[in-house]
Design a protein that fits this description.
signal; alpha/beta; 3 domains; Thioredoxin-like_sf; five-stranded mixed beta sheet; Glutaredoxin; single chain; Thioredoxin-related protein; Thioredoxin_domain
């Protein structure tokens, strides 16, 4: 048995005596895993899972991770990391729970299972989840995603020999090819973003403008979620209306916020106002993906209004 596999087994055994869902060969110690990946010149495969409640996580584990075809197929390619978010937290130490919470936030994980492939520094280059087809098909899928790292590194190397907007475009293409969330790009590729800004100070690519717009929208969403958590629909409506009046957003973000306003009005039972708001949202860009969906939203709200009127009439007769 190779020393690295002895290392993996020892690491798992040392993790509070907890049996990880993925079985032997997995660790929940993120920093130790990064150190091993650097030593062995491998990538990390990080499984964000809910081992005792998430049905798709359990299927992925049973159909793929526990199969010999997976274990053999990923050998010498990945250090395996299981980050678990169980309902029964007694199986995890407080230290591990804190680590996992920080990593969930850092990698902007919103659903389970999420599988991230990262380099030894923890910089992600691919993201996936459950895939049908079993272990052998999943290994082939991972092999394709693993090429993202080579493509990324080659693109960064090529960009290092370029200057100006040409360099900026090469770096932007490298980031786009990985298909990562903007928050993750900002967190783990901040240096690359800085290089893009330095190479193209006039922002001829529009990259900086787009990134700033997305950051503003993320701030809007965060504040809106606060109202949602409190169940404060009136507050959410006022906040959304003030945001639209501020003129801080345009294009896709403005249309998204205008659509949210219409949906809040519908939740408040203000169906006529919601219909008008949907029309205003569509007018921002009728041909966009969102613009083409708005008529469907409007029809569903109209059906809700009609059903509400029928229910009210029925109660009056009772």
């Amino acid at each position: 048995m190779k020393m690295k596999h002895v290392f993996h087994a020892a690491l798992c055994a040392a993790t509070l005596g907890t049996a990880l869902a993925g079985g032997e060969g997995w660790t929940q110690d993120f920093e130790a895993a990064k150190a091993e990946a650097a030593k062995e010149k491998e990538s990390l495969l990080i499984d964000f899972t809910g081992s005792d409640w998430c049905g798709w996580c359990i299927k992925l584990n049973e159909e793929v991770f526990q199969e010999d075809a997976f274990k053999e197929g990923i050998k010498d390619k990945f250090v395996l990391v299981e980050l678990d978010y169980p309902r029964d937290t007694s199986k995890l130490s407080e230290e591990t729970q804190e680590q996992n919470a920080k990593l969930q936030e850092a990698y902007a994980i919103q659903g389970f299972p999420t599988i991230l492939l990262t380099d030894e520094e923890g910089r992600p280059f691919a993201r996936t989840g459950y895939q049908e087809g079993g272990a052998e098909a999943y290994v082939k899928h991972l092999d394709e995603l693993l090429k993202n790292r080579t493509t990324r590194d080659e693109a960064f190397e090529k960009a290092s020999h370029l200057e100006g907007p040409e360099k900026a475009n090469a770096l932007i293409s490298a980031l786009d090819a990985m298909g990562l969330d903007d928050a993750v790009v900002g967190k783990f590729y901040g240096g690359v973003v800085d290089d893009i800004k330095a190479a193209d100070p006039e922002d001829t690519t529009g990259f900086v403008k787009e990134m700033e717009a997305k950051e503003r929208y993320a701030g809007f969403e965060s504040k809106l979620n606060e109202f949602g958590q409190k169940g404060d629909h009136e507050g959410a409506l006022s906040f959304t209306e003030e945001t639209l009046k501020s003129g801080a957003f345009e294009g896709a973000e403005k249309q998204q916020i205008a659509t949210i306003k219409a949906m809040i009005l519908a939740q408040l039972g203000r169906f006529d106002d919601a219909a008008t708001a949907f029309d205003e949202a569509k007018a921002v860009d009728p041909d966009s993906e969102m613009g083409q969906q708005i008529d469907g939203f409007k029809q569903r709200v109209a059906a809700m209004a009609e059903q509400g009127a029928e229910d009210h009439t029925g109660h009056d007769h009772d």
